[in-house]
Amino acid sequence: MGIGPALAVSGLYKRYGDLVAVDGVSFEVSEGEFFGILGPNGAGKTTTLEIAEGLREPDAGSVRLLGEAPWPRNLALLPRIGVQLQASAFFERLTAREQLETFGALYGVGSARVGEMLELVGLSDKASTPEAKLSGGQRQRLSIACALVHDPDVVFLDEPTAALDPQARRNLWDVLREVQARGKTIVYTTHYLDEAEVLCDRVAIMDHGRILALDAPARLVRDLDAATRVILERGVLPAEQARVLPGADSVTEDEQSLTISTRTAAPLLSALAERGTLGGLQVRTATLEDVFLDLTGREYRA
């Protein structure tokens, strides 16, 4: 990572009528960092991202992007940032290559760079395919290629893997890893907690316009101090025997399984091994999703 922040946000506020969309948000993103902003619907993620990009004016607070203010619209920053919005719009009737050539022409980018981007996002074999005939995952990859074609220093991605099938989502992970490996700073939002846990150096968890937690995913999980769950097939071990095992804090049972919660997994697993009950056993530790739900609650939000 480089020296100094690529993005510095301080005391950011944005209100729409009675709704406070962004409520005193502050954070910094280092050069070369993969930084995620997570939160339920309406948390303020997209608004924060749009202010950082210079697409919206904040009501209060400041943003420094690559050392400069992005608002009022800073034309000097445009060649240095790449933006992929939630809803991507392409030029009609153009092929994948023509789309990239058109975007690249805005920045004086040559055809060699276009070919490199097609290869990076795995679309070299689709270069002559009209954009309208690409799959959802291919269109998402093309959208990211358009955001990268001019070789920006900072890339903003707003839910880049939304609505993709699991295979397309994993393929896109590889693209994003490669982008970061090239020294780029990535700032992105997502609803996929497993994705953020794998890709991000640090994450900010937002709700109601505020940042509730900010740290490396592994640190956030560790600080939650959640129990480990050991899951056995029902009938392998009677519940009354499970409750007296060393390290067992609580035991629950349903029609398929018996779950033992523990904060000292080693003696519990050792005791289960002595009883020969390790076959089919599952051990589930806390994840970033547990942190997210602990901070934001479990109620559904449309």
Q: What does this molecule look like?
A:
- It contains 10 helices and 13 strands.
- With 302 residues, it is of the alpha/beta class.
- It has 2 domains: 212 residues, Rossmann fold (3-Layer(aba) Sandwich); 59 residues, Alpha-Beta Plaits (2-Layer Sandwich), CATH 3.30.70.
- The chain has a 6-stranded mixed β-sheet, sandwiched between helices. Strands 11-12-10-13 form a 4-stranded antiparallel β-sheet, with helices on one face.
- Strand 1 and strand 2 form a beta hairpin.
- Helix 2 packs across helix 3 and helix 7 crosses helix 10.
- Belongs to the ABC transporter superfamily.
- It is found in: Cell membrane.
- One of its GO terms (molecular function) is ATP hydrolysis activity.
- It comes from Prauserella muralis.
- It is a peripheral membrane protein.
List the helices and strands and how they pair.
Elements: E1 5-16, E2 19-30, E3 34-38, H1 45-53, E4 60-65, E5 81-84, H2 96-105, H3 111-120, H4 136-148, E6 154-158, H5 166-181, E7 185-190, H6 193-199, E8 202-207, E9 210-215, H7 217-224, E10 228-233, H8 239-242, E11 250-253, E12 257-262, H9 265-274, E13 282-284, H10 288-296
Parallel strand pairs: 3-7, 3-8, 5-6, 6-7
Antiparallel strand pairs: 1-2, 1-4, 8-9, 10-12, 10-13, 11-12
Membrane topology: Peripheral membrane protein
Keywords: Antibiotic resistance, ATP-binding, Cell membrane, Membrane, Nucleotide-binding, Translocase, Transport
GO biological process, one term: response to antibiotic
